């Protein structure tokens, strides 16, 4: 009986020591080591790929943001603030006009599917895309510059799988140049050059597609507008 109790006590003691050692190694030493290496070699990525404006963090280069006007009484969806370059459509992005009050709401695709619109009270995918396309044409046709429906790229009327894509294509950014220039009292060529300067090419020259980070572009736009 005493031997059984002794054996049980030894086993429990060994188990507790193993638990303590593993807790220290896996719960303290390893996380600190990984964090230390990440901070030393990749500090920007380790801290969330933060983007700063005027010394304040205004978002992440990995997460998209919306640029909307304040919600009006009776509205469910705010109107876009057309003085800024607009991102891909998404109902899951926090609002931000290049300020530190960025607040993420949720993540998830907001596209319709092919079987949406089965009832009369619900718009189908086709109707939804056509309405979004018409809005892009209307918002960006200013002065003598007219946008045709065929000019509107796919990402201007559909959200990404996560709803958090921070990029748009150079084509979509170019469509917005005349409108942004007019709303901010800027020369079209200066705004066009801004888009060109903030267009990232394919990774290694062949991976992915050229893209424009909307937040970074709008920060540059804000700085350009401040200069006059």
List keywords for this structure.
mainly alpha, three-stranded antiparallel β-sheet, 5 strands, 228 residues, 43% helix, single chain, two-stranded antiparallel ribbon, 2 domains, elongated
Task: Tell me what the structure shows.
This protein is 43% helix and 7% strand. By secondary structure, the chain is mainly alpha-helical. The chain has a 3-stranded antiparallel sheet with strand order 3-5-4. The protein has a two-stranded antiparallel sheet with strand order 1-2. Strand 1 and strand 2 (56-60) form a beta hairpin. Helix 4 (170-184) packs antiparallel against helix 5. The mean pLDDT is 84.
Brief overview:
The protein is mainly alpha-helical.
Topology (SSEs and partners):
Layout: H1 2-41, H2 43-46, E1 50-53, E2 56-60, H3 125-140, E3 167-168, H4 170-184, H5 188-197, E4 199-200, E5 211-213, H6 214-227
Helix pairs in contact: 4-5
State the major sheet: 3 strands, antiparallel
Could you say how many structural domains there are in total?
2
**What structural class do helix, strand and pairing data support?**
mainly alpha
- Globally, the shape reads elongated
Question: What order do the SSEs take from the amino end to the carboxyl end, as H and E?
Answer: HHEEHEHHEEH
Taking pLDDT < 50 over at least 5 consecutive residues as the criterion, the unreliable ranges are: none
Strand content: 5-15%
Spatial separation of the terminal alpha carbons? 90 Å
| Helix run count | 6
Helix content: 40-55%
């Amino acid at each position: 009986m005493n031997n059984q109790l002794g054996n049980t006590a030894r086993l429990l003691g060994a188990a507790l020591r193993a638990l303590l050692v593993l807790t220290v190694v896996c719960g303290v030493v390893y996380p600190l080591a990984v964090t230390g290496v990440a901070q030393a070699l990749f500090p920007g990525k380790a801290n969330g790929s933060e983007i700063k404006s005027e010394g304040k963090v205004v978002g992440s280069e990995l997460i998209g943001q919306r640029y909307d006007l304040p919600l009006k009484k009776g509205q469910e969806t705010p109107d876009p603030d057309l003085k800024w370059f607009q991102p891909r459509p998404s109902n899951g992005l926090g609002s931000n006009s290049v300020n530190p009050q960025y607040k993420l709401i949720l993540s998830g695709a907001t596209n319709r599917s092919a079987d949406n619109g089965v009832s009369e009270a619900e718009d189908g995918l086709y109707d939804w895309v056509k309405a979004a396309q018409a809005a892009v044409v209307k918002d960006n046709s200013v002065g003598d510059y007219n946008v045709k429906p065929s000019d509107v790229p796919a990402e201007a009327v559909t959200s990404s799988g996560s709803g958090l894509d921070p990029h748009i294509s150079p084509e979509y950014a170019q469509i917005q140049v005349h409108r942004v220039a007019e709303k901010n009292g800027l020369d079209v060529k200066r705004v066009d050059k801004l888009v060109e300067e903030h267009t990232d090419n394919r990774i290694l020259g062949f991976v992915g597609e050229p893209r424009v980070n909307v937040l970074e572009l709008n920060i540059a736009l804000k700085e350009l507008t401040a200069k006059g």
